[in-house]
Amino acid sequence: MAIEIVRVPDLGGAETVDVIELSLAQGDNIAIEDFLIVLESDKATMDVPSPYEGQLVKYLVAEGDTVKVGDPIAELEVSSSESVTKPEADEPVTKPQAEEPVQIEAAESQVEAPVVDEESAPAPEPKVAEPANIATEVEPSQDGATGADIYAGPSVRLMARELGVSLGSVVGSGPRGRIIKDDIDAYVKDALKSSAGNNLVTGSGIPAIPAVDFSRFGAVDTVKLSKIQKLTATNMHRNWLNVPHVTHFDDADITDLEDFRKSLKAEGESRGTRITPVSFIIKAIAMALSANPVFNRSLAPDGDHYIQKAYCNIGMAVDTPRGLMVPVISNADGKGIWEIAADVADLATKARDGKLMPLDMQGGCFSLSSLGAIGGNGFTPIVNAPEAGILGVSKSQMKPVWNGDTFEPRLMLPMALSYDHRLVNGGDAGRFMSDIVKFLSDIRHLVL
Ligand code: CAO
Questions:
Q1: What pLDDT does 200 receive?
Q2: Which domains are present in the chain?
Q3: Which pLDDT does position 176 carry in this prediction?
Q4: Centre of ligand 1 from the C-alpha of residue 429, in Å
Q5: What is the number of other CB atoms lying within 10 angstroms of the CB of residue 100?
Q6: Omega before residue 386 within 30° of 0, cis
Q7: What would the 3-class secondary structure string for the chain be?
Q8: Residue-wise pLDDT tens digits, 28-55
Q9: What is the bridge-based pairing of β-strands 297-299 and 306-308?
Q10: Residue with CA at minimum distance from ligand 1 atom 7
Q11: Would the pLDDT of 217 be above 90?
Q12: Which of 141, 219, 342, 395 counts the highest number of beta carbons within 10 A?
């Protein structure tokens, strides 16, 4: 094993370029020719491939940095220091096959670097096969993002940027789902068609929100959205527009559950694991998913099928200073409450410390958004498509509940279940929610 530094290759004439994408996550394995980073000058974008096979130790630059030829960009651990061509400061990176040079595409046809025919170029293996979560550190392939897992070459990315098209909304028709220029064309034509047909009768098309010069009314500051904020905005918008949402409400009586949970405090301290209501709710969701498999489905992209999942991974929204993250608790159905509690604590800490890996955020079947520690009587969560449903949980409150003879003070947990009405009917939702209420109200069910 040796450490090799990958440097900025020949830039086709540009003196400096901006780093616009880091294509991998720390620790990712990388093959020769896998893209490491995307650079952009005012005239061109460039996917820089790895000259080595190995593992990414770390990037030596960050998105937004400006770099010049020869600057170090990444540190790789390689099994053999044999490379396609070692990129030296004064030497351009080359790929093994003559027809696969560094992918450079001129924005204004002024860069002399070779241009790849993206549509015919062999596509590298996609890095992530899983569908999107609400937000991930790397952009997932079906999302409105333009990052590592969007499968498109530089000229397609440039075209999308120029036309204001979010690549995550475009379905790729190239090899292995690669987005090609025709896909962008088709997407734009569709968008134009639907806005042309926009009228109050059909309801199609979305009227634009008018741009306002806020500075006319007082002091303002224009702040750049973080990558996660942008990704969340795109994903929420996409899910809101694509999914016909219905939200179903109910309250669970968690008086006994809370007494039981509090009785576990000492054991929790000795185990070093804090149990909150969230662990019980995740367990209840896992059991309800197994009893109501309709909620563990996703529509297939062909529109003619659905995919029934036989595994049970639950996404959990985590509020972090950098934005919303949704790590996934895997195989929640096979885990006990202590194990789930340890996962909740571990994943929430990682999310807040910015240490989640892409895999931590993939493979979710259903999501939980708990605002219980923050407050509120209720809210309507947005489905994390292509999942079928999401449970929103608010703060529990002591309420007078009629027991047939008298009002009793009971601790009630308000819940809201949003679901994709293309997959789930109201009756399915009623059964699913009633199961959750049953499991949380009588914790004996949770151990059965
Ligand atoms: N009602 C009342 N109290 C609750 C509760 C509820 N539904 N859920 C949790 N609590 C209490 C816990 O009992 C705990 O208090 P004690 O230590 O006294 O027992 C405290 O709140 C813990 O809160 P926490 O936030 O540290 O831990 P958690 O397990 O409840 O939640 C997590 C973990 C990651 C879900 C949460 O921290 C979080 O980030 N929530 C925000 C999710 C979000 O942003 N959703 C919106 C998404 S769409 O914009």
A1: 61
A2: 2-105 (2.40.50.100), 107-208+218-242 (no CATH), 245-447 (3.30.559.10)
A3: 64
A4: 24
A5: 16
A6: yes
A7: CEEEEEECCCCCCCCEEEEEEECCCCCCEECCCCEEEEEECCCEEEEEECCCCEEEEEECCCCCCEEECCCEEEEEEECCCCCCCCCCCCCCCCCCCCCCCCEEEECCCCCCCCCCCCCCCCCCCCCCCCCCCCCCCCCCCCCCCCCCCCCECHHHHHHHHHHCCCHHHCCCCCHHHCECHHHHHHHHHHHHHHHHCCCCCCCCCCCCCCCCCHHHCCCCCCCCCCHHHHHHHHHHHHHHHHCCEEEEEEEEECHHHHHHHHHCHHHHHHHCCCCCHHHHHHHHHHHHHHHCHHHHEEECCCCCCEEECCCCCEEECEEECCEEECCEECCHHHCCHHHHHHHHHHHHHHHHCCCCCHHHHCCCCEEEEECCCCCCCCCCCCCCCCCCEEEEECCCEEEEEECCCCEEEEEEEEEEEEEECCCCCHHHHHHHHHHHHHHHHCCHHHHC
A8: 888 888 888 888 776 566 778 889 999 9
A9: antiparallel
A10: 372
A11: yes
A12: 141
Q: Give phi and psi for 105, each to the nearest 5.
A: -130, 125
CA distance 328 to 196: 41
Taking the CA of residue 395 as reference, the ligand 1 atom at the shortest distance is 1
Longest Cα–Cα distance of the chain, Å, equals 87
Among all chains, which residue has been given the structure tokens 């400006």? 66
Closest-lying ligand 1 atom to the alpha carbon of residue 373: 21
